[in-house]
């Protein structure tokens, strides 16, 4: 039996907010040159939906194969301005079976990404709320690759409840919304791929001496997503638990700390998350650091 820490209560709400802790944004929606305004929801700005960029993607060993949206897959990616999320976007662009990548981001992504032919970049302020226009943009998506998160120990933040909101409530709100609101093809499950972290523990009462709060929050997120899967056979969740994540352009001096720890290259992590979104992995729902590295070498031919 799994035990949850009674002091780590989290809200299941999607639309409710604490006014004292969160700014309210007026919704702004741009679809092409059309401006849609109204309501008190989080802002959504569709930055770009088309361009002509194609060809090999840095770090991935295959060239994009052009395909039609009818024959391909649409996926959602979060955290695209971070280390893992940016690599996931490049991996999804490079994958021949993925024809559309919808990025949900609080910050603008680089033009080299947002202007790619496969990419639709949407500025989204509040990851607890998903307005109708946003859901319409991702309606036929078949997977979400979740790489949004915080760096460091949650208690190092001035408001530790915000860390819990980002690490647990954000992915849970997205998963619940996508499970209940998106059009579903009964022949294909919707897959939610979570970038978690090494050391997540099933027993929330177990004493932990290193990265205690980070590990417990990541586990809480994993368990909460699993609860959705247990009641919806066409909603699959997969978790990647990397340890040290090595950037592709890291210099020799910066790589020294990684020499003494288990690690995975960010391009390897991204390749595995992408393949999980495309193909899943059956009953194996958790991928540990070393397993990620081994599978990635097969995928990338390394």
Description of the molecule:
- Residues 1-43, 50-59, 61-70 and 207-211 have low confidence and may be disordered.
- Helix 1 crosses helix 7, helix 4 (160-181) packs parallel to helix 5 and helix 7 crosses helix 8 (289-300).
- Helix content is 31%, strand content 20%.
- The chain has helices spanning 83-94, 111-114, 132-137, 160-181, 212-231, 252-255, 266-279, 289-300; strands at 28-31, 34-37, 44-48, 73-78, 98-105, 119-124, 143-146, 190-195, 235-241, 244-246, 263-265, 286-288.
- The radius of gyration is 19 Å and the shape is globular.
- The strands form three sheets. The protein has an eight-stranded mixed beta sheet, sandwiched between helices. The chain has a two-stranded antiparallel ribbon with strand order 1-2. A two-stranded parallel sheet has the order 10-11.
- With 302 residues, it is an alpha/beta fold.
